[in-house]
Amino acid sequence: MKIKNICCIGAGYVGGPTMAVIAQKCPEIKVTVVDINESRIAAWNDEDVDNIPIYEPGLSNIVKEARGRNLFFSTEVDSAIDKADMIFISVNTPTKTYGMGKGMAADLKFIELCARQIARVSTSDKIVIEKSTLPVRTAEALKNILDNTGNGVNYQILSNPEFLAEGTAVDDLMNPDRVLIGGDIDSDKGKEAVKALVDIYAHWVPREQILTTNVWSSELSKLTANAFLAQRVSSINAMSELCEKTGADVNEVAKAVGMDSRIGPKFLKASVGFGGSCFQKDILNLVYIAKSFGLEEVANYWEQVIIMNDHQKKRFATKIVKTLFNTVSGKKIGILGWAFKKDTNDTRESAAIYVTDYLLNEQAEIVVYDPKVKAEQVYADLDYLNTRTEAENRARVKVVNTPYEAAYQTHAVAIMTEWDEFKELDWPQIYEDMLKPAFLFDGRRLLERKTKEKIGFEFYAIGS
Ligand SMILES: NC(=O)C1=CN([C@@H]2O[C@H](COP(=O)(O)OP(=O)(O)OC[C@H]3O[C@@H](n4cnc5c(N)ncnc54)[C@H](O)[C@@H]3O)[C@@H](O)[C@H]2O)C=CC1
Ligand SMILES: O=C(O)[C@H]1O[C@H](OP(=O)(O)OP(=O)(O)OC[C@H]2O[C@@H](n3ccc(=O)[nH]c3=O)[C@H](O)[C@@H]2O)[C@H](O)[C@@H](O)[C@@H]1O
After folding, report:
1. What per-residue confidence (pLDDT) applies to 401?
2. ipTM here
C-alpha cells in the first residue's frame, strides 16, 4: 500500500516536529497537521519561521523547507481526516484531574474525541496510529469506537510511540535509537498496515532499527521506557543527598558507576528534580494501571520514583531557606532558568515552578530570567498551582530580560535550568551586584565550585 496523504491530529511538541521531519524526508507524501487550537496553527503558519510555536534547535529550517510544499498546518480537522490514508493521533494525554483515577490515570477524553471524529467523517479505509503515549490496551477501545460508530469503512490501528526528547527533538527524529511499531501482525491487513508505516520511516531510518511488535507490547514499552529513564534520575538524585552527607561527590560517583558498560553513562546527571510533561504523568499512569490489576508491589515500586523526585525539589528549596539563616521573608532571590531543561521553551512540570512556589510561601521576592520562556508563561505556571491569588503572584514575582537583572541586589541566585549561557556569565559582575553574603545555589551542577568560591560566592551544588 502506498501512502499519499497523512493527517496528524495535534500540532504540539510531538505532532509538529514529527510531521515536519516525515514531510521533509518523504516529499511525495502530503502531510497535514491539524489542531483545534487556532492560535497554535496560526503560529505554525507564521511567515517568519522563527515564530513557530515550538522552539527546537533545527526545527525552523525544516519547516521552512517543507511548509507549503508537502507540509501544511490547518484547523480544518474534518476534511484533513477524510482525505488521509493514514492518521496519526498526537493529542495530549494529561493526568486526570477529576473523577475515577484523579491525579493518576491518563485522561483519555481527547483521544476518544479524536476516534469519534474519525469515525464520523471518514468515507474511506484508514490506518489510525496512536502517536500519543497511552495506557496499554487503549487500541482496543479505539477499535471499538471506530468499528461501532463509523460509516462501514475499515480501520487498522497501529501503536507508534514517540521517544523524542525536547531540546533534541530534531536530532532524535533524524537518528532514532529505534522506531517502534505495534500492529495486528497476525492478520494480513494488519501486516499490510505495519508495512506501510515501516516504509515511511525506512526513507531515513535503517530497517534493522525499525522494530515491529504486537500492539500491547508497543503501548507498554513506551510507559516502560519513560519509567526506566525517570528511575535513573531519581536513583542518582537519591545518591546526591547521601553524597552531601558523606563528602562523596555525585558527579564522581555517576562517572564511576556509568563506566560499567552494564549501567552506561547517560541519564545519571543529578539535578533539582526531573520535570517535563511526561515522566511524572506516565509513571503515575503506570502506577494506576498496576493498581487496577491489583499489583500493589509493582505500583509501590514505581511510585517511589515520583516520591523521590518531589523530595528532591523540596529539599533544594529547603536548603535555600536554611542557608539564608532560616528565613527568606522579604529577601530577593534570583531564579536562573524556568524551562524544565535547556534548549526548550517548555515549562511543564519544571522544578523551577515548585521551588519558586515554596520560596513564595516563605515570603520571598522572586526575580526570574529564562532565555526562552515568556513572562506570561511564568505567571500562568504559578497561577495554575492555585497557591495564592494571581495578583499576588504578579506582585511578588518579576520576570526580567537579562540574567544580570535577575541577580541584581538579590540575597541569593539559584540555577534551575542548565542553559549553556549561564556558564559564561560575568560572574564577578553578578557577585558585585548582589547583597553579601552572596549565595549561589546550583541545582544543575552547571558551575565550577572553585572559581565561584574564589570570586567570593557562598556556593552550594546538588550532590557535593
Ligand atoms: N512532549 C514530548 O516531548 C513528548 C510527548 N509524548 C506524548 O505525545 C502526546 C502529545 O504530547 P505533546 O505534543 O507534548 O502535547 P501538546 O499539548 O503540546 O499538543 C497536543 C495538541 O493536541 C491538540 N488537540 C487536542 N485534542 C484535539 C482534537 N480533538 N482535535 C485536534 N487537536 C486536538 C491540542 O490543542 C494540542 O495543541 C502525549 O500523549 C505525550 O505523552 C511522547 C513523546 C515525547
Ligand atoms: O515521553 C516523553 O515525553 C519523552 O520524555 C523524555 O524526554 P523529555 O522529558 O523531553 O526530556 P529528558 O531529556 O528526558 O529530561 C526530562 C527531565 O529529566 C531531567 N534529567 C534528565 C537526565 C538526567 O541525567 N538528569 C535529569 O535531571 C531533565 O533535566 C528534565 O527535567 C524522554 O527522554 C523521551 O524519550 C520521551 O519521549
Report:
1. 98
2. 0.98
How far, in Å, is the centroid of ligand 2 from the Cα of 350?
11
What pLDDT, on the 0 to 100 scale, is given for residue 1? Answer: 82
What are the CA-CA distances from residue 188 to residues 154, 156, 194 (Å)? 13, 11, 10
Q: What is the pLDDT of residues 299-325, one digit of tens each?
A: 999 999 999 999 999 999 999 999 999
| Phi, psi torsion values for 419, nearest 5 degrees | -55, 135
Beta carbons of 133 and 139 less than 8 angstroms apart: no
> What would the pLDDT profile of 427-455 be if each residue is shown by its tens digit?
999 999 999 999 999 999 999 999 999 99
Among the listed residues 152, 168, 117, 205, the one whose alpha carbon sits nearest the alpha carbon of residue 346: 168
271 lines ligand 2 (CB under 6 A): yes
Q: State the closest ligand 1 atom to the C-alpha of 132, by its place in the atom list counted from 1.
A: 39
What CATH architecture applies to the domain 5-213?
3-Layer(aba) Sandwich (3.40)
What ligand 2 atom has the least distance to the C-alpha of 444?
Answer: 27
Q: Residues with beta carbon inside 6 Å of ligand 1?
A: 9-15, 34-37, 40, 77, 90-93, 110, 113-114, 132-133, 162, 164, 166, 277-278
- Atom of ligand 2 at shortest distance to CA of 161? 37
Annotated catalytic residues are: 162, 222, 278
Fold of the domain built from segment(s) 215-464: Rossmann fold (3.40.50)
For residue 174, give the 3-state DSSP assignment. helix
Residue-range domain boundaries for the chain: 5-213, 215-464
From the list 215, 222, 230, 227, the residue with the least C-alpha distance to 183 is 215
Nearest-CA residue for ligand 1 atom 21 is 10
7-43 per-position pLDDT tens digit = 999 999 999 999 999 999 999 999 999 999 999 999 9
